[in-house]
Design brief:
Layout lengths: L1 E11 L3 E4 L11 H8 L3 E4 L6 H16 L8 E5 L10 H8 L6 E5 L5 H14 L5 E9 L9 H4 L4 E12 L8 E9 L7 E3 L12 E3 L1 H23 L8 E4 L4 H11 L10 H4 L6 H11 L8 E8 L3 E8 L1
Parallel strand pairs: 4-5, 4-6, 11-12
Antiparallel strand pairs: 1-7, 2-3, 6-7, 8-13, 9-10, 12-13
This protein binds oxa(dethia)-CoA (UT7).
The site of oxa(dethia)-CoA has 19 residues, from helix 1, helix 5, helix 6 and strand 12.
C-alpha cells in the first residue's frame, strides 16, 4: 500500500525574541506568573518584513534542503494557518510563487492550533489517493498581528514562527512497522466556538479582529479531548503508549502537556517540549517542536512519533507517524 513518508523537515523563526520580562512594563504580569502557569519563557515576534508567507517560505526551503529536493520535485503545498497574509488568495499560493513553483497546486487549511495535524492527515489522503506524490506540509503563523497587546490573559501566551515537512509517497505493507503516516483521528465541535476566537472577519466586521480566549474554559476541556483522540489513534494502529518513541504535542501550556502525557501513561523523557522557547505558535507549534527534536538527534528514522493538537473551534486531532 501507499504510505506518506517523511523525507525532510525544517523551521523558521522571526529574528526578534521577546522574553517574559519584556511584558512587565506593558501589562500587569510577571515572569514568575507566566512560567508557573504556562512554562513559557520566551517567544519570537515577527518584524514588519516577516510574514506568514516569508516564514513559511523559509521553513519550506529548510525542509526541502533536508530532503535533498527542490521546489520542482513538489506537486502540492498545504499550509496550515489562521494568520494568512491576505484574506485571499491562499498564502500557500504566495509561498508557491515565492518558491518559484509554477506547477502543481497549493491551498490553506484553517483549523487554528490543530491546523498542522489536520494538514498532515489531509496531505496523507492526497498522497494515498494518487493526487500528489510529494507534498510540502507547512504550519506558519504570525499571531502577534492578531493579539490584543493590552490583554495580559492572552498577549503573553502566543508567538510567531513556521515549520514544515516534506511527505513523499512510499511503499508499505499496511502494518505498524511501515514508515510513514500510520493513523489519524480528527475532531471538531463548534459548540465551543466562543471560547477561543478572533472578534473580526471579512463577512462580519470587515476587520481582522483580535484573539479572545476564555483560557480556563479551554484548559478544562483540553486534556480530555487530547487523550480521547490519541486513544482513538492508538486503537486504529493497534499500539499502546509503551510503543511510542516520541510524543510531540501542541505547545500551548506545559501543564496541559504534562497532564495529557500522565493520563496516557507516556513517560516524561519521551515528551518533546518547546513551549518554553516558542510560546504557543498555533499551527506552527507541532512542526517547530518536530524540527527541534530532529535537529538535536532525538527523532530518528524508524522512530514511532505521535503528533497531537487542540485549539479554537474547538478542533482537535492526533496523527501517528513512523519517521
Ligand atoms: O492553543 C489553543 C489552546 N489554548 C490553550 O490551551 C490555553 C489553555 N489555557 C491555559 O493555558 C490557561 O488557562 C492560562 C495560561 C491561559 C491561564 O492559566 P490559569 O491557571 O487557567 O489562570 P486563570 O485564567 O484562572 O487566571 C488566574 C489569575 C486571574 O486572576 P484572579 O481572577 O484569580 O484574580 C487572572 O486575571 O491570573 C490572572 N492572570 C494573570 N496574572 C498575571 C491572567 N493572566 C495573567 C498574566 N499575568 N499574564
Amino acid at each position: 500500500m501507499i504510505r506518506s513518508v517523511v523525507r525532510g523537515s525544517g523551521a523558521a523563526l522571526p529574528r526578534r525574541i521577546m522574553k517574559n520580562a519584556d511584558f512587565e512594563g506593558m501589562v500587569e504580569t510577571s515572569d514568575e506568573w507566566i512560567v508557573q502557569r504556562t512554562g513559557i519563557r520566551q517567544r519570537h515576534v515577527a518584524a514588519d518584513d516577516e510574514t506568514t508567507a516569508s516564514l513559511g517560505e523559509a521553513a519550506a526551503r529548510a525542509a526541502l534542503d533536508s530532503a535533498g529536493l527542490t521546489p520542482a520535485d513538489i506537486d502540492l503545498i498545504v499550509l496550515a494557518t489562521s494568520t494568512p497574509n491576505n484574506t485571499f488568495p491562499a498564502t500557500a499560493v504566495e509561498i508557491q510563487n515565492r518558491l518559484g513553483m509554477h506547477h502543481g497546486f497549493a491551498f490553506d487549511m484553517q483549523a487554528v492550533c490543530s491546523g498542522f495535524v489536520y494538514a498532515v492527515a489531509t496531505a496523507d489522503l492526497y498522497i494515498r489517493g494518487g493526487l500528489a506524490k510529494r507534498v510540502l506540509v507547512i504550519g506558519s503563523e504570525t499571531f502577534s498581528r492578531i493579539l490584543d497587546w493590552s490583554d495580559r490573559s492572552t498577549c503573553v501566551l502566543f508567538g510567531d514562527g513556521a515549520g514544515a515537512l516534506v511527505l513523499e509517497a512510499g511503499e508499505g505493507v499496511g502494518g505498524v512497522a511501515d514508515r510513514g503516516v500510520l493513523a489519524a483521528s480528527l475532531r471538531s465541535d463548534g459548540v465551543h466556538k466562543d471560547k477561543l476566537f478572533v472578534d473580526g472577519g471579512p463577512s462580519t466586521t470587515g476587520t481582522v479582529g483580535h484573539l479572545r480566549m476564555e483560557g480556563r474554559e479551554v484548559f478544562k476541556h483540553a486534556v480530555g479531548m487530547i487523550t480521547d483522540v490519541i486513544e482513538a489513534t492508538f486503537a486504529q494502529a493497534g499500539i499502546t503508549a509503551d510503543d511510542l518513541d516520541w510524543f510531540v504535542p501542541h505547545q500551548a501550556n506545559k501543564r496541559i502537556i504534562d497532564a495529557s502525557a500522565k493520563k496516557l501513561g507516556i513517560a516524561e523523557q519521551k515528551v518533546v517540549v518547546t513551549v518554553d522557547l516558542h510560546g504557543n505558535t498555533s499551527a506552527a507549534s507541532v512542526p517547530l517542536a518536530l524540527s527541534v527534536a530532529v535537529a538535536d538527534g532525538r527523532i530518528k528514522k524508524g522512530d514511532l512519533v505521535l503528533l497531537e493538537a487542540m485549539g479554537g473551534g474547538f478542533t482537535w486531532g492526533a496523527v501517528l507517524v513512523r519517521w
